[in-house]
Design goal:
GO terms for molecular function: DNA binding; DNA-binding transcription factor activity. This is DNA-binding transcriptional MerR regulator. InterPro entries: DNA-bd_dom_put_sf, MerR-type_HTH_dom, MerR_fam, Tscrpt_reg_MerR_DNA-bd. Helix content is 62%, strand content 3%. The protein contains five helices and two strands; from the N terminus they run ααββααα. Helix 4 runs antiparallel to helix 5. The model has no long low-confidence stretch (mean pLDDT 92).
Length: 130
């Protein structure tokens, strides 16, 4: 597929795809007779995985490390696994922190009376809680 097709299907801009190729995050594409990039379906799968890593907060330097290890071959599997396990631990810690925050928000929301925002306050005195 051409770069425009890859961009449309992956959600990445063509500029981003070219940049990712330049820095080694995406393998260099084959070229057709006219010198245009030609990607195979595996690139789309790889980009989807990279997007998940980005969405979970993996820093670019770690995504680059992972990509470089991947390019070296299957023998780097243990190193890639270690990198992903460390990232998973960080993601789990952030999820737990967000869950704690959600609990606080739910508790605060439950402390307010239900009703419309424009309903008169049940009392004239200000509340002492934030």
């Amino acid at each position: 597929m051409k770069i425009s097709d890859l961009a449309r299907r992956s959600g990445f801009s063509t500029d981003t795809l070219r940049y990712y190729e330049k820095i080694g995050l995406v393998p260099r594409a084959a070229r057709d007779a006219g010198g245009r990039r030609v990607y195979d379906a595996s690139t789309l799968t790889w980009l989807a995985f990279l997007d998940r890593l980005r969405a979970t907060g993996m820093p670019m330097r770690d995504r680059l490390t992972y990509a470089r290890l991947r390019a070296k071959g299957d023998h780097t599997g243990p190193e890639r696994r270690q990198l992903l396990e460390a990232h998973r631990d960080e993601v789990r810690a952030r999820v737990a922190q967000l869950q704690d925050c959600l609990t606080v928000l739910d508790t605060k929301i439950d402390s307010y009376p239900k009703g419309k925002a424009n309903d008169p306050a049940p009392t004239d005195r200000p509340t002492d809680t934030p």
